[in-house]
Structures are given as C-alpha cells and as structure tokens.
Amino acid sequence: MSPNLRIAFRFLTAKKRAMLMSLSCTVLGVGLFIVTQATTSGFQELFIKTILGTDGAMRIEDKIQGTLRSIEAGGGSDFQMLQKEGRKYIEGVEEPRQLIKALADFPNVAGISPVLRGNVIVRSSFKNETGQIYGIELENHLNVSNLAGQITVGSLDEFRESPSGALIGRKMADRLQLTVGDSFIIEAQGQVRRLRVVGIHETGVSDIDKTRVYLHLSEARSLLKQPTRVTFLQLRLFDADRAVPDAKQIEDVLWHSATPWQIREKSWLGVFHALEVSTAITVSIFTLIASLAMFNTLAMIVLEKTKDIAILRSMGYEREDITRIFLWQAVIVLLIGTLIGSLVGAGMTYAVSLIPLGVTGIFKTETIIVTWNGWHYVQAVGTAFIMIMLASIIPARRAARLEPGDIVRGTAQ
Q1: What value does the mean pLDDT take over residues 146-172?
Q2: 28/227 Cα distance (integer angstroms)
C-alpha cells in the first residue's frame, strides 16, 4: 500500500459516521439505478418482442408513383427527372409474387408473408362486432410472426386442414361468447361467410385481440373480391435493428412504401425512452446526496487535519500528494459503494423479477420483466464516479493550497 493511500485510509476512518452516510447513499444510488433501468428496459424489450412477433419487423405496402418533371438543358433539349415531393401512393401491392421474388434478394430479409386485410362485421348468436380479417398463407406467416406461440386454445393443425376455419382474438371471442368449434358469420362488401373457430390467439395487445381474425388467404380473397392483390407484405429480418436503413433501400429500389417497426411504433418507443431517462434522473438523487455528503466530510477533514497537513508538507509532501490523499478517500468510498451497490442492484433485480404482475394492453406478462444488461452497471458506476469525484475536487484542492507556515501562524485560509 502506498503512503498516500495509507494516509487517506487513516483520515477516512476518522469520520466513520459521515463516510458511512456517503457510502450508504452511493450503494442505494447504484442499486436503484440498476434495478430501475433493468425493469424499464425489460418492459421495452417485451414490447418490441411482442410487436415483432405480431406485425413483423417491416411492412411493404403501397406502390410509389413518382411525378416526372421536365427541365430545360439548353440548346433546345430537355430531360425529365422524378420529383420526390410529387410522389403518389397506389394502395396495396398489386403484384405480390414479383415483389416477394425481388425482396428475397435483400440479404437481411429472413421471411416474407403476403397479407390481405379488410374490415368486416363479425356476427355470433349473441352479438355483432366490427373486426378485421387477415388473409394469410399460414406457413409463410409463421415464419414472420409468433402466431404459433399466441394460440391459447385450439390448434394450428386444424386451421391448416380447414379451409373455412378461422383464428380469432381472445377479447373478440369473449365478447361474442365464442369458443373452439363454434360457428359465426362474417359480412364484408355484400359477401356473407359462415366460418368455424378452430383457434383463439392472444397477443396481449388489446387492439389486436378484440378485432383481428385470421383466415386463409384464398378465403379472404373470395370474401373481399381481391383475386390477386394483397394489402401488405410482412417481413422478418435477420437483424431487426437495421430495419430503418433497409426500408429506405427497399423504397429506393422497389418503389413500394416500406415501414420499419421503429417508425411504426415510434410513439410507444418514445414513451419508454422518456420513462428510462426520468427514472435515471430520479434515482440519481441518491448519488447526488452521496456526493454532497462526501464534499461535506472532506471539507471537515481539511479543517480538522490542518496540523497533519502542515506536518506532511514540512516532511516534503508536494501539493499534488495532498490532493491525491483526499481524492483517494473519495476513490475508496466509490470502490466499496459501487461494488456493494452493484451486488445490491443485481439482488434487487432478481427479487423484482419474481413479483407477480398481470399486465395486458400493449403486451402481456404475469410478472415484472427485467433485462440483464452490463451497460446498466456501467452507467450506474459512471454516474456515481462523476458526481462524487467532482464533489471531492474542491476540498482536495483547498487542502493542497495550505502552507505549513500559515498553519503554524494560524492564518491558513
């Protein structure tokens, strides 16, 4: 152990109560920072997993039609160019098979499912409800969604084998008092179909579970009188985080509107980000209190140890040595506080993950969701380090400015 560190430890033990207060606030600040970030990130990741498993990483929808503008080039000649501002959108995908073939050449595209969507009236013996049918090719849709994991009652095998089978949302089933095996009627564009419930799906997203009905694509085409076109293509990507640049590339190459999940769910992602920042600021108050306690403690040590500082200076200690002695005290508290705080944060995170919590609305969970991310520990330790070290610099520099002669004469400031 170096002499500076040994002296710092001796000074530190002289103010045990004050140092314990700073240490306890550091532990609480680090621990609470970790657990709040873990829970906020956990719910955000569950939300992202839910939307990716339901609506895919990207949707390819309307065809883009550019407007040509003539520009004079001089010499009696002119040329035409496409104007971005003059874009028009033609609803739906008119030639889905050709577009699917072209999308398969993009390296990040892992799966493609054509979907035909339409508004309908769903009738049972008890009630009528408005809903949306989603005509799908089951195998392709299973490759771009988590539909298989969302079936709570019934069987996808029966859906495969039943052309008139339907998968309905849990809330719709409850409102219409339908269960597997029951028949119901769908009306759309003057067409009427009697279908049978072969499965009930539940995503936890209220707007989906109370409106969405999955049918075979051929059945939906017949019902909506759309023999070739589809409403959109749902994509799964190998790397969902690259959805935004991939969407721009797809739009530029294929001239179809591409909506990545980050844009589609921008409002909810903004809410989670705001919550993450606000909780970080709130729990950092404990670290701020720890830094103020450290400042106060070191300032008192400077006042009480002026004679010791004079002796050290007269023995040949430079101002930099005195500064290091006082900064070492802050480092000792930081090391102990962040280590214990990280362990406390990990323990609290595990304990919180066991707390039952029934949530539905934008996702479904039975417990509090947490995420184990080393970056949360880095952020917590970094916040504590910056605050406490900044608070320690002023008393450390003040101690370094003391001169032995001034201390002996009693004129030290």
Answers
A1: 93
A2: 63
For 189-248, write each residue's pLDDT tens digit: 888 999 999 999 999 888 899 999 999 999 999 999 999 999 999 999 999 999 999 999
d(CA 292, CA 276): 25
8 Å CB contact between 295 and 391 = yes
d(CA 171, CA 177) in angstroms, rounded, equals 10
Under a CB-based contact definition with an 8 Å cutoff, are residues 338 and 381 in contact? yes
Token pair recorded at residue 354 = 């066991």
pLDDT at 406: 53
CB 87 within 8 A of CB 67: yes
- What is the tens place of the pLDDT at every residue in 314-333? 777 777 878 888 788 888 88
Domains identified in the chain and CATH numbers: 3-53+268-409 (no CATH), 115-230 (2.40.40)
Distance CA 151, CA 279 (A): 35
Tokens of 59: 């949707």
Task: Give the type of residue at 200.
Answer: I
pTM of the model: 0.78
Q: Tokens 């909780």 map to which residue? A: 279
The residue type found at 169 is G
Residue among 209, 174, 178 at smallest CA distance from 195: 178
- Pick from 329, 392, 340: nearest CA to 25: 340
- Helices 243-254 & 96-103 angle (0-180, nearest 10): 130
Strands 165-169, 191-201: parallel, antiparallel or unpaired by DSSP? parallel
Contacts of 68 (CB under 8 A, 6+ apart): 80, 81, 82, 83
Residues 6+ apart with CB under 8 A from 83: 66, 67, 68, 69
Residue 151's Cβ-side half-sphere holds a number of Cα atoms within 13 Å equal to 18
